[in-house]
């Protein structure tokens, strides 16, 4: 391990003068890459992959606009273990634990560089950790916020030249961590510094001197520089696969998952290795910390490992224990993964309820939105979560994006639940719509307003804008067509205004945007009837009515809704044949509501089925609901027929055939 000394060295003043002179001659900012690749020719480095050229051009130039010019830096003094003097005393002078602690709490690169310059002697790993911390603070979305704060600092230049000139004497951990930091800082990948570090890494890989963690860190750096086609990556993965998976630590397992997620696992590559890792990780789940749990789940989603359900279930169970320890980012990854794999767990939901109840007001907007999206997709109606989110929305909504606002409100309509503070919630929503209406994407806005009508909250003040030709044009795709589901939402919004808002006098939806049926394949405003439950009800109805001719199935009404079963009665209350269209005095719509028409954890009818039954009643139908939880409890044919008679004809004498 190399020991770096920046301050307190013999002849320090002379050293710094020489270092500055060298940096002046070497660290001049270079020109941006041009389309004729003159910049590429400047370097004596001919083995350039197209990916490398693309990577360099993307981050260092803009036909672009220069975000960060590459710098070559130099100037520092190195002490190694072989130097004269007592190395143990040098170690004693540096409290590495204290240094790392101060590094973690540092909030600016200036603070970090002052910390570096104040240390008598620091190891290469300490210097690398400092550079990594600089990259975390100074980069946003992969771009340096203020490059001059970093690259023009003499301490940064001094540290860099140490890694460049003494690359062969660096510890392996210090080598790969430094390389990772320089990649994140977008240092020129063809500079002498980077070439030497990569070359030294290659030698150590070939000699088998790297453990799995170092191999993975190096692999992620090479993916950033050259992409998945880099030859060195194949060598890295060969060394990884030679090591026994049963002996991997949880940290090593997580790093290999992350490496494969970063690009090496695309197109089914290394699937055999992944399958072995899934089995081994199941045995390690109780050793995983919150960070590893979330990163493994995130990797499973990215790699589309749909066959790894046993591992997902195991990770979900262990997540219950660590729920209160998850950071916002980690919780988002866990919830996204559980949504992707279609898994939910009663104990996980209870733990999530306890967490949200305490943390709703301080959770990040993304985390709150993801919690609501998870509940919505899994049809989990948690009144505890929904009430807490509704309360926090009233006070924190100014911090939310328009998409996050929709993600938090839409689930209330989808799951048909009005929170305890419904009046405050919708007043706040109305205020937001007035002030930020133009900021919403058209589809997002339509989803938001449509969810309101599911809850009998009518956005009358905004309907005129929705039905305007300008807004409808915004809903069109490039070919000029409007998605079928969008047309269904518009039609149901128009039907709601017509039936429930007679005072509305604004523009109406143009006929060309109206549909004749709300039922569509895929995403639909109506749920498909449960086939097994329907067949049982149909058989009992035949026994009750005497013949199949006295009721119709899957009937499309004139009002876009599809009826599971329709029975027609004349003025005296007698049942008419289904084919009879005259003298119909009453129509009975039987809703055969299977389990998918209710929330997964309660008997609360979901929003789209609730509005359907509400509208059918307003349109003159007598609605009879046959819920699965009542029907499934019946035993025997006679009991089922009697149940249907009481439901459909509660005041009539039953005829027996």
Automatic annotation (TrEMBL):
GO biological process: mitochondrial RNA processing; regulation of mitochondrial mRNA stability
Every RAP domain range: 588-646
Gene Ontology molecular function: any one: RNA binding
SMART domains per record: RAP
Places the protein is found: Mitochondrion
GO cellular component, one term: mitochondrial matrix
Domain of life: Eukaryota
Family annotation (PROSITE patterns): RAP (PS51286)
Stated name of the protein: RAP domain-containing protein
């Amino acid at each position: 391990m190399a020991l770096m000394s920046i301050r307190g060295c013999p002849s320090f003043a002379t050293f710094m003068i020489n270092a500055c002179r060298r940096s002046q001659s070497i660290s001049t900012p270079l020109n941006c890459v041009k389309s004729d690749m003159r910049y590429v020719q400047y370097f004596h480095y001919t083995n350039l992959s197209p990916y490398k050229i693309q990577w360099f051009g993307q981050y260092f130039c803009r036909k672009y606009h220069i975000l960060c010019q590459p710098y070559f830096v130099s100037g520092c003094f190195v002490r190694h273990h072989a130097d004269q003097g007592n190395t143990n005393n040098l170690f004693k002078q540096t409290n590495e634990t204290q240094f790392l602690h101060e590094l973690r709490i540092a909030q600016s690169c200036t603070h970090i560089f002052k910390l570096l310059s104040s240390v008598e002697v620091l190891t290469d790993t300490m210097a690398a950790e400092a550079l990594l911390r600089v990259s975390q603070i100074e980069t946003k979305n992969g771009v340096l916020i203020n490059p001059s704060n970093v690259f023009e600092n003499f301490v940064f230049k001094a540290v860099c030249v140490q890694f460049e000139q003494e690359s062969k004497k660096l510890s392996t951990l210090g080598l790969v961590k430094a390389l990772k930091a320089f990649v994140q800082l977008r240092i020129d990948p063809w500079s002498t510094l980077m070439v030497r570090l990569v070359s030294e890494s290659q030698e150590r890989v070939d000699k088998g001197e790297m453990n799995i963690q170092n191999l993975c860190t190096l692999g992620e750096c090479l993916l950033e520089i050259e992409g998945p086609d880099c030859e060195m990556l194949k060598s890295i993965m060969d060394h990884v696969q030679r090591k026994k998976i049963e002996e991997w630590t949880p940290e090593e397992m997580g790093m290999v998952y992350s490496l494969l997620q970063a690009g090496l696992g695309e197109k089914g590559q290394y699937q055999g290795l992944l399958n072995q890792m899934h089995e081994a990780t199941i045995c390690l789940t109780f050793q995983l910390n919150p960070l590893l749990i979330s990163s493994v789940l995130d990797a499973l989603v990215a790699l589309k490992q749909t066959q790894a359900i046993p591992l997902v279930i195991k990770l979900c169970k262990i997540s219950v224990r660590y729920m209160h320890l998850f950071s916002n980012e980690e919780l988002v990854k866990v919830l996204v993964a559980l949504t992707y794999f279609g898994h939910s767990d009663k104990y996980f939901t209870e733990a999530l309820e306890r967490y949200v109840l305490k943390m709703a007001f301080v959770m990040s907007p993304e985390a709150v939105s993801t919690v609501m999206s998870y509940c919505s997709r899994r049809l989990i109606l948690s009144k505890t979560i929904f009430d807490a989110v509704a309360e926090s929305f009233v006070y924190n909504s100014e911090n939310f994006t328009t998409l996050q606002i929709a993600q938090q409100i839409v689930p209330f309509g989808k799951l048909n639940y009005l929170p305890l503070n419904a009046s405050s919630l919708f007043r706040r929503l109305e205020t937001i719509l007035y002030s930020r209406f133009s900021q919403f994407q058209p589809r997002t806005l339509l989803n938001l307003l449509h969810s309101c009508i599911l809850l009998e909250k009518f956005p009358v003040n905004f309907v005129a804008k929705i039905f305007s030709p300008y807004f409808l044009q915004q809903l069109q795709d490039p070919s000029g067509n409007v998605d079928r589901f969008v047309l269904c939402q518009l039609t149901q919004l128009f039907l709601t205004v017509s039936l429930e808002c007679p005072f509305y006098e604004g523009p109406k939806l143009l006929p060309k945007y109206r549909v004749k049926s709300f039922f569509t394949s895929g995403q639909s405003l109506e749920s498909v009837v449960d086939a097994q439950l329907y067949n049982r009800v149909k058989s009992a109805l035949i026994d009750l009515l005497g013949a199949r001719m006295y009721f119709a199935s899957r009937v499309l009404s004139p009002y876009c809704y599809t009826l599971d079963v329709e029975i027609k009665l004349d003025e005296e209350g007698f049942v008419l044949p289904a084919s009879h269209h005259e003298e119909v005095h009453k129509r009975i719509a039987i809703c055969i509501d299977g389990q998918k028409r209710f929330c997964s954890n309660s008997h609360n009818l979901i929003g789209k089925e609730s509005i359907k039954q509400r509208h059918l009643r307003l349109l003159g139908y007598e609605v009879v609901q046959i819920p699965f939880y009542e029907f499934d409890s019946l035993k025997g044919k006679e009991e089922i027929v009697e149940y249907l008679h009481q439901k459909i004809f509660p005041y009539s004498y039953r005829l027996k055939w």
